[in-house]
Design a protein that fits this description.
Order of helices and strands of chain B: EHEEHEHEEEHEEHEEHH
Number of domains of chain A: 1
Strand content of chain A: 25-35%
Shape of chain A: globular
CATH architecture of chain A: 2-Layer Sandwich
Radius of gyration of chain A: 19 Å
Radius of gyration of chain B: 19 Å
CATH class of the largest domain in chain B: Alpha Beta
Shape of chain B: elongated
CATH topology of the largest domain in chain B: D-Maltodextrin-Binding Protein, domain 2
Largest sheet of chain A: 8 strands, mixed
Number of domains of chain B: 2
CATH architecture of the largest domain in chain B: 3-Layer(aba) Sandwich
Number of helices of chain A: 9
CATH superfamily of chain A: Bira Bifunctional Protein, Domain 2
Number of strands of chain B: 11
Number of strands of chain A: 10
Largest interface: A-B, 29 and 29 residues
Helix content of chain A: 25-40%
Distance between the termini of chain A: 23 Å
CATH class of chain A: Alpha Beta
Number of helices of chain B: 7
CATH superfamily of the largest domain in chain B: Periplasmic binding protein-like II
Distance between the termini of chain B: 31 Å
Oligomer: heterodimer
């Protein structure tokens, strides 16, 4: 029992460190309901935006810095995962991808300073580049939503088949690559895109098959993986969300505390890698 | 390069064809005839295998217990899981999901359909604007029309022999299915060894396709 209590204590200590860090950085907490539209909460972002949208006058300059805590439900596996969601919401031009990734990196340093260099891999995708590169390859206007939908469902095989149906199109951008190789291929289709990678110390790969879990992503998306377990420690990206009265532009990420605990337990040697 | 990956394989009729694919890719098939062992750990040069129920394959892959899974498209469509990536059609375990009845006629009016695939069945009839009631069964579905449980069934057909034996005929084909290779998105993206395993299987599949053409 002591081991179990100790594990719970460590999980809450991690949670408190994250919350304290976010408060110190000027992020305000937003409580979200665990039940939304008769479904268990699967995403904090949309719930936060719904709450913001209920205020008739909303000042988003400077951008709002918000966070929400609480478990998210995975209907396929009927499990809840403890999560903290961090958002910067405002006018498009004021939100910088670099700023968000810097917050994530600082957060990771707070949570597990010794994991950064050798244990983590960040994979970046870019939804808008996917759209533009497909168009540059000669795919039809109606192909993009179809291919995006397939990638959101994890159906890489069907997405590749759809792209390859266009003569001359290629699927190399849908495989993870180091930045130099990725951008040399991307620039064949989008010559004006400049390689600008948000600063971070972890290993970085680029892969346009990464499009995020939600349809509201509109630009850079990312997933931070734990190398030894292969599990997702954090994911997020830039989004546009329309509510009946407003459009919210922002960028955010979710960190999964259970996975962090597993990663830290593996580091301590108290848990095997599956 | 190392191929140290663990693969969850759906137990059942596709197992023999998976063994053949394994051997063609020059992997050693670890399961001996009659063995009831369900887990064969990976070594540095051989992938490991977990024998699992078809429905559980995606759960094992999504949770990172297995790096890859082999499971039929029919199961993936019935229980879609965005926590895994479908990366290759292995072109084995071919079968089709059909609507069948005694008279092979499209139903007139609301009708009851017995099936192991209620989600696919509902979607199929919804697209056609036809009201149905699904009756979920976990096996022996072809018995339903014979014993008066439901006049129609949706079930997997391989040779069609079982349907014939129960006096049933195909009304329509809903889905052509074959085994798919699914991958854990994390290991697929960040572990080069996983892509080596994929590439070995893909070489075999591509060679077969060339031989056919």
């Amino acid at each position: 029992m002591q081991e179990w209590l100790g594990e719970n204590r460590r999980q809450y200590e991690t949670f408190l460190r994250v919350v304290n860090f976010l408060m110190q950085e000027g992020f305000d907490p937003v409580p979200t309901d665990p039940l939304r539209n008769q479904e268990y909460r699967m995403d904090h972002t949309r719930a936060m935006v719904d709450l913001l949208g209920s205020f008739p006058e909303l000042d988003m300059s400077p951008p709002l810095k918000l966070f929400a805590t609480g478990a998210l439900f995975h209907p396929r596996r009927s499990v809840w995962t403890e999560a903290i969601d961090v958002e910067i919401i405002g006018k498009d031009s004021e939100i910088d991808d670099d700023q968000l990734i810097a917050v994530l990196e600082d957060l990771v340093r707070q949570m597990a300073p010794d994991l950064i260099d050798d244990e983590l891999t960040m994979v970046y995708g870019q939804v808008d580049w996917l759209k533009q590169s497909l168009w540059a390859m000669g795919c039809g206007n109606s192909d993009y939503p179809h291919i995006l939908g397939l990638l959101q469902q994890g159906n890489l095989q069907a997405a590749e088949a759809k792209i390859l149906a266009t003569p001359g199109a290629d699927v190399r951008l849908l495989r993870p690559k180091a930045a130099a190789q990725f951008f040399s291929i991307l620039n064949m289709y989008l010559p004006t895109v400049v390689h600008k990678e948000p600063r971070a110390n972890w290993t970085v790969l680029w892969d346009l098959s990464l499009v995020g879990n939600w349809s509201y992503y509109s630009g850079l998306v990312f997933t931070l993986y734990h190398n030894r377990s292969g599990q997702v420690l954090a994911n997020g990206g830039r989004f546009d969300i329309k509510t009946p009265t407003k459009v919210f532009t922002g960028a955010g990420f979710t960190i999964y505390l259970d996975v962090w605990q597993d990663a830290l337990a593996i580091r301590r040697g108290s848990r095997d890698v599956s | 390069m190392s191929v140290k990956s663990t693969v969850a394989v759906a137990k059942g009729r596709i197992m023999d064809e998976v063994r053949e694919l394994w051997q063609q890719a020059e992997f050693t098939w670890p399961i001996r005839g009659g063995s009831r062992q369900l887990w064969f750990p990976a070594t540095d040069d051989q992938p490991g295998i977990i024998v699992a129920r078809a429905r559980d394959v995606c759960t094992l892959v999504a949770r990172g217990i297995a790096d890859f899974g082999v499971v039929g498209l029919d199961v993936l469509e019935e229980y879609p899981d965005p926590g895994v990536m479908r990366v290759m059609d292995l072109e084995l375990g071919r079968c089709r999901l059909v609507l069948a009845s005694k008279d092979a006629r499209w139903p007139e009016g609301p009708v009851r359909v017995a099936t192991k695939y209620p989600a696919i069945t509902r979607q199929f009839f919804q697209h056609r604007g036809h009201p149905i009631e699904t009756l979920g069964l976990s096996g022996s579905v072809e018995l339903a029309p014979v014993i008066g449980l439901a006049p129609y069934i949706v079930d997997v057909v391989d040779t069609g022999q079982t349907l014939k034996q129960h006096g049933l005929r195909v009304v329509d084909t809903i889905l052509w299915s074959s085994a798919r290779l699914v991958a854990n998105p994390g290991t697929w993206r960040i572990r080069p060894s996983s892509r080596e395993f994929y590439q070995r299987l893909k070489t075999v599949i591509d060679r077969k396709a060339e031989d056919i053409s």
